[in-house]
Amino acid sequence: MSTVFIVCVLYMLTVFRVCKADENSNIQIPLMDNVKAPLFADLNLSTVTQQLKRVIQQEVKRSVQDRSNDSGNCDRKIDALEKTLQDLVVNYTNTLNQLTKTVETISPASCQEPYQRIGSGCYFISDNKVSGNAAFASCTEPGAYLANFETIEEAMVMILFLQKKKTGNSYYVGGRNINRYLPNGDWRWIKHGKATPMTYFAFEEGQPSGTAKDEQDCMFFYATNRYQFYDIHCDNKRYYGGYICEK
After folding, report:
1. Which of 13, 74, 130, 195 lies in disulfide reach of 188, CB 3.0 to 4.6 Å?
2. How do the domains of the chain map onto residue ranges?
């Protein structure tokens, strides 16, 4: 109510200043447009000014009184508008997120060569024999990362694909042991600098076998009769292999 009152007062003062400048002036209003004997009526602006002042004062008084009587209703209306705005923001955000996921799924640009669509992921499979650290760097340079199979479904899709490929190669993927001093280590999926705990543990029997003295902190997707995870020395030439990048 105080804001409305201040605005009204400022409006009144402005009107009064404008009117006061001419309040002693008379103007002639044509009553009949007669060329030979034009008829005019004199109008004293001071009278009009006084009348305007009274009308404005009455309207301001009524408006302030209405605002005062309806303050509770205004508060309810403001609360309702804020709730509506919040709902619109939530709906817009959800729609935008869903649209982004849809575009990423159907857009060919999201999986351009040399990457290929495998399941719902976008992968590049290299058969070049490199170390684990070199594989990590090779994927991160173009803005990708060593493949993260965060769900068993993702891993199974890749297993079936590689079995059909029949290269017999083993591939570095994005699993890393971030604490070799713990029993079996602390294995995480590394993606753009973020370390996500593994929700399933698909290492071969007896794996992982690395220790604090026998550092085996990189993860191999090992190709024998079946594909399973192994922990491997990250820089030992004996364990050079291919790698799988993901976008």
Report:
1. 195
2. 2-70, 112-246
